[in-house]
DNA sequence: ATAGAAACATACGGAGCGTATGTCAATTTA
DNA sequence: TAAATTGACATACGCTCCGTATGTTTCTAT
């Protein structure tokens, strides 16, 4: 026990704090989550928190970084699994909508995160995700599938549509039925990016 | 002076508080805006605030209600000014993007509002705006311009795309150039809603 | 004219964040 | 290996700010 490396111990406490923060932020929201309760649940005090993350915003950044990495990995997975590039592009969008159904992602990534940290497109991992989508669209343009246009613009608007779709689904009385409608509309919108003849 | 009706005086204080709140929320953000400073700037105290709006969230609701009404009015105006129903629909989207360029709307309506009050699509005025867009799309479907689909789904996704476009523009180094790209992408996406032959 | 209520101000208590200080263990250095 | 230093975390404090409880004044109603 005492043979544990110092760096490893630190990583454990950071992980415990992030874990507790994810739970508290997701259930109570960022503003209503108390740092005292947070750290107590992790078996620590606010001292550890301020030492490791600087302030409350720093903790939120760490939480968002973790969730964002998970989302990015999942989107890569479904994209690489698709048969064609175009289908992979669509699958990414659908996967995004599905993920945003989870209350944790809704609350932390879509509501509190932007309000506290500002525009999500400036977050490190999010930009990675966006660049990935942008590159995919650029490839679709180069191969003649998608009409010539600004790839980043297409990626951002498509992402925005998917985001709003998930918000809509999450607030719906019958999420399952609404999910189907949203996916249909999403596919139609994407068609607008294709070359005119199809 | 003393002849002023009671109700009118109340309306004035409410207006003064909302005015000060709009300014403070827009510049400092909801969380960082102090109620003491707010009311002092309006020449009042927190007593007036809690008497009229209940709590801080109530004040935010009032502010959002005012801004939302202004946005709704402007969107109706540009829509009714267009030559065809389809062009009116597009103009509404562009107008939405333009409005979301204003920092006040960015901060209050798009960042803090959803974080504090929850899903915007449940706000009273927002639902009115959405219903308006939904009806427009439904009419476009009925007249054969837009392919048969769920009108509300189309309205929500299109709105989401427009919203993200405005967030992107606002954070850009060169908003003017980005605005052009976003509008182009927005029009392409909308084309996906049209009947296949055009 | 007086009673009542509404509009707003003042006073109070409590919660929470951030910082300053303290303590103990681990790593380093001689 | 023993002393010294640094790092990790806990404890203590002050300050701000929200919400409520109470007080005061002005308008309205009978």
What would you say this structure looks like, in words?
The structure is a homodimer of 198-residue chains. With 198 residues, the first copy, chain A, is an all-alpha fold. In chain A, 76% of the residues lie in helices and 0% in strands. Chain A has two domains: 7-54, Homeodomain-like (Arc Repressor Mutant, subunit A); 64-191, Tetracycline Repressor, domain 2, CATH 1.10.357.10. The first copy, chain A, contains nine helices and no strands. In chain A, helix 4 crosses helix 6. Chains A and B meet through helix 6, helix 8 and helix 9 of A and helix 6, helix 8 and helix 9 of B. Chain A binds a DNA duplex (30 and 30 nucleotides) through residues 2, 6, 9-10, 13, 34-36, 44-52, 55-56.
How would you describe this structure in keywords?
elongated; mainly alpha; Arc Repressor Mutant, subunit A; 198 residues; homodimer; Tetracycline Repressor, domain 2; DNA-binding
Brief digest:
The first copy, chain A, has 198 residues and is mainly alpha-helical.
Protein topology:
Two copies of one chain form a homodimer.
Chain A: H1 6-28, H2 35-41, H3 46-53, H4 56-81, H5 85-99, H6 103-117, H7 124-142, H8 151-171, H9 175-191
Helix pairs in contact in A: 1-4, 1-6, 3-4, 4-5, 4-6, 4-7, 5-7, 5-8, 7-8, 8-9
Chain A binds a DNA duplex (30 and 30 nucleotides) through residues 2, 6, 9-10, 13, 34-36, 44-52, 55-56.
């Amino acid at each position: 026990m005492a043979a544990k490396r110092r760096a490893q111990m630190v990583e454990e406490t950071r992980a415990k704090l992030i874990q507790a923060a994810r739970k508290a932020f997701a259930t109570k929201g960022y503003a209503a989550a108390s740092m005292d309760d947070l750290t107590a649940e992790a078996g620590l005090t606010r001292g550890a928190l301020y030492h490791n993350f600087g302030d409350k915003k720093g903790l939120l950044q760490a939480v968002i970084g973790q969730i964002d990495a998970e989302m990015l990995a999942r989107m890569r997975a479904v994209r690489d699994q698709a048969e064609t590039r175009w289908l992979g592009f669509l699958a990414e969008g659908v996967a995004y909508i599905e993920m945003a159904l989870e209350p944790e992602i809704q609350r932390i990534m879509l509501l509190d995160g932007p309000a506290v940290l500002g525009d999500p497109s400036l977050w490190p991992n999010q930009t990675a995700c966006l660049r990935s989508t942008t590159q995919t669209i650029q490839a679709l343009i180069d191969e003649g599938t998608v009409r010539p246009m600004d790839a980043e613009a297409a990626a951002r608007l498509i992402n925005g549509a998917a985001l709003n779709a998930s918000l809509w689904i999450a607030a719906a009385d019958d999420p399952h039925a609404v999910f189907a409608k949203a996916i249909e509309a999403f596919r139609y919108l994407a068609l607008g990016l294709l070359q005119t003849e199809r």
